[in-house]
Design goal:
By secondary structure, the chain is mainly α. It has five helices and no strands. The protein has a domain of about 60 residues: 434 Repressor (Amino-terminal Domain) (Orthogonal Bundle), CATH 1.10.260.40. Helix 3 packs across helix 4. The longest helix has 23 residues. The protein is elongated, with a radius of gyration of 18 Å.
């Protein structure tokens, strides 16, 4: 078997992230971006303003802005659950 010159060619991106020690951080950031995007999409479809969304969640607009900020990962499960309820969805978490 011939050894490749570049060990990253043909490898998986997940493997590279793990080698670099940033897999968990990248995964968490990706999840947060997707969740924030899903909530914003649902708000747009339902024509919900941020003010109305915050009211439905019984929270402040500042807290809602943190939730919708894809780069802010300091969101609690309670906040996510209230957001899901406010847009008529359920929050589902699982360990894999």
């Amino acid at each position: 078997m011939k050894k490749r010159k570049n060990r990253h060619i043909g490898g998986r991106f997940d493997d590279w992230l793990k080698e670099e020690g940033i897999y968990e951080e990248a995964t968490n950031a990706s999840i947060k971006k997707v969740v924030a995007w899903q909530i914003e999409q649902a708000m747009q479809q339902q024509k919900l303003t941020r003010t109305e969304m915050a009211r439905r969640m019984a929270t402040s607009r500042v807290q809602l802005n943190r939730l919708l900020d894809p780069d802010n990962d300091s969101v609690t499960l309670g906040t996510l659950s209230r957001a899901a309820t406010a847009i008529g969805r359920r929050l589902r978490l699982e360990l894999v």
